[in-house]
Amino acid sequence: MNPIVGKVFLVLCGSLLVAGAPNTCGKLDLKTDPFTCCTIPKLLDVTIVSSCFEKFPIDKDAADKGAASMPKTECMSECILNSTGIYNRRGDVDEKKLNSVFTDSLPANSPWLNVVRKAIKECTAKADKKDKEFQKDVADQKKTTPKGTQVCNPEASFLVDCIHTTVFSDCPTNLRSTSTECDAIWNFLKNCPFSALRQ
Ligand SMILES: *[C@@H]1O[C@H](CO)[C@@H](O)[C@H](O)[C@H]1NC(C)=O
Question: Residue 159 in contact with residue 126, Cβ under 8 Å?
Answer without folding.
Answer: no
